């Protein structure tokens, strides 16, 4: 392996992307768009405010106070529904997803329970909902929690079981801060995998690989220069993502040597996969389709966007076989938990994977044609 | 095939098969050091496949190929340091300038200090040194490709269809560069389907058709051996002339410009035809008598034209 040859390749690739302004723009803009878009979505996770329609059929002081208390819980933005309208029809016509109906006689029942200890007295609130909406179960769960609290208060007896929250971290992190390492890992994967597969199929289609095959450059030198090229781009795009997330969302993550280490391992892994793909696909369009087929499941299954605990058991097992999962976990261990032991464990796993696919990429790369 | 070989390239019963397709069928030839050797044939004849096996881009199905005394299937890394290749449909990195491209390829040969300025001068690209590849015309790109093939000062140069797709002017510019190589004493293996190119540049020409070499020798030998006659052309001849010549027992062929071509085996036949036309009072604006070219040799040997637009040469048959 000759460093001068690797450096020459790296220079040609970097100067090419620098002079190709459109590619340069999208290479840098993509992570910014990604961080702003997902950042905006996930920032609201820390301050959930669901839309809730309430139809108060009782129109009493107690029912009005209950509705106000729901609004003050901070979980709901309340919209009143005229008691005269059919709530089911209202839900269909307004595209609302949940209407809470407070029955007539609510206050009378409440008074009988509170002042006459008539425990046979109760009020039944009705949830009219659209089952096709994915947010409805969450809304109903939160609503039930709020109502359970109200029931406890009405009973006048202190709760027996109490809970207290205790984070393993001394500092309180927001959801966006857990999310950023996943976005960094995912964008570096996309950059390396798509870039390698596209660039190499394009160079082969143009005949440049054929010309290179008549020079002394080796496959290892070529792939290593690819790794360094995408690592350089990964450093630039990650720096931009971290700066944008700090400037816009005021994120506060730990930056240490694990970050470049995981970026390098991420690049090694996906350049290796990209080179292996290039062996089997001939056209750059097919290369993009094949890269999509690999990256999309990886993106959603490896915990970049959603915690894998939300997935069925077999998908959780599958997730733990994916390289991106260990990059995500490793980056979170390093940037949030400052857990060197966990980071080392994840780095070791992704390191072994990277070494295997890098060697596979070298073996799979074919300079000569028509064997 | 070892030690200090007399031949730069030795090919013995080389065969290449792609499934059922036999692209190259047991061809054998040798290229002497310092010789310009041309493989001449139409598209799909097996020229490029043969060259790509010799210059290590492809592997053979069977047969032996020795390059500078080394087996091409076993000594690739040693071989590529000593050869230069202009592949068919050469292309390079779009956004890299001429000078940077030459510098890049020279760096792939570690320990080599190529004189980039001299190379650019050789292929007449000095004033384009800062132009990016994507902005070069077809002829300039081919000249850059030739310069790249010379960046390591190779002992053997492979040029696979160096002028295909170029306009006549660009083709002549490339020929000038190739004649410069010839005068430097480089061993050159060239593939082409332009007979003028082979005739102008090659010391030895191998005519290849359907994967087989059907004739080989110097251009003059091939013409002498396979087309020992002359072609008389009467320019803008009137209709009577055609019938008069036919009446003399010749087989004239007229083209759309009223030119009439007649194959003549003896010098006296020319005089016979001209005097018969003069006696009949028929008219023509000029005449040309010449030896046949490689295209006509190819036509005779294979019954096929080298490329479209050569049917007019049937007159020589």
Write the layout of secondary structure elements.
The complex is a heterodimer of chains A (371) and B (317).
Chain A: H1 3-19, H2 21-43, E1 50-56, H3 61-72, E2 76-81, H4 87-94, E3 98-102, H5 106-116, E4 126-129, H6 136-155, H7 175-206, H8 208-212, H9 219-249, H10 258-280, H11 284-301, H12 313-319, H13 323-337, H14 340-364
Parallel strand pairs in A: 1-2, 1-3
Antiparallel strand pairs in A: 3-4
Helix pairs in contact in A: 1-9, 2-7, 2-9, 7-9, 7-10, 7-11, 7-13, 9-10, 10-13, 10-14, 13-14
Chain B: E1 7-18, E2 21-32, E3 36-40, H1 47-54, E4 62-67, E5 70-71, H2 76-80, E6 83-86, H3 98-107, H4 116-122, H5 138-149, E7 156-160, H6 168-183, E8 187-192, H7 195-201, E9 204-209, E10 212-217, H8 219-226, E11 230-235, H9 239-247, E12 253-254, E13 260-264, H10 267-280, E14 286-290, H11 294-302
Parallel strand pairs in B: 3-8, 3-9, 6-7, 7-8
Antiparallel strand pairs in B: 1-2, 1-4, 4-5, 9-10, 11-13, 11-14, 12-13
